[in-house]
What we know:
By secondary structure, the chain is an all-alpha fold. About 60% of the residues lie in helices and about 0% in strands. The protein has helices at about 50-65, 70-80, 85-95, 100-115, 120-130, 135-140, 145-160, 170-180, 185-200, 205-210, 215-230, and strands at about 5-10, 10. A two-stranded antiparallel ribbon has the order 1-2. Strand 1 and strand 2 form a beta hairpin. Helix 1 crosses helix 3, helix 2 (about 70-80) runs antiparallel to helix 3 and helix 4 (about 100-115) packs across helix 6 (about 135-140). The longest helix is centred in the middle third of the chain and has 16 residues, at about 100-115. The protein is elongated, with a radius of gyration of 38 Å.
Amino acid sequence: MAGRRARTGRGWDASPPRAGDDTGTPRPRRGRRGRAAEPESGEAPAPPRDEAELAREICLRQLAVRPRTRAELAGALASKGISEETAEQVLDRYDEVGIVDDAAFARAWVSSRHAGRGLARRALANELRQRGVDGEVAGEALDGIDEETEADTARALVDRKLRTARGEPDAVFRRLVGMLARKGYPAGVAIRAVKDALAAQSAEAAEFAEHIDADALADAEHDLDARRLD
């Protein structure tokens, strides 16, 4: 019976009673006022975040890496499931305060890529188009690179490469023209830059350069490009 000591074969059992009832079943833990405590079930789920707040956070993370165009940010938001309406609202606000400025982006991109890598107008225009810059905005940014600037940059690139170039003049000629073509230079500009650089390098290279018809080669390259596009 509850409240009485149990008699054992060796006498009365004087050990303290177990926690809980006399059957050994543990009692529920009580709160301060005697109420049973709620079972621990983990933290309550966080409330859903505002979509505009999430969109701003995504944009700022993107901009922390490097400047971005509006189209690049819109693509990042779409990939994260942000609705088009919310994306437009956030990006419109960023336009207003100058956080997103495609014209400034294009000017900085052209300046950096032309000076740092020697890219020509055609290559730079393609890069800006890939990043969603409007054609008119890109054209304004490219206005600072005229034909004379392109020719000077092409020649500087060739002179730098010639310092370590090895091989027969004809092989060197083909490699350097190909290098300029990959950077977006028109065939005529590339061929003339390499011809002039070879003529100033050595007697052997100068003799080879004398036999180069830059105009004829440029026309041939142009015709080849046109056939590839057909």
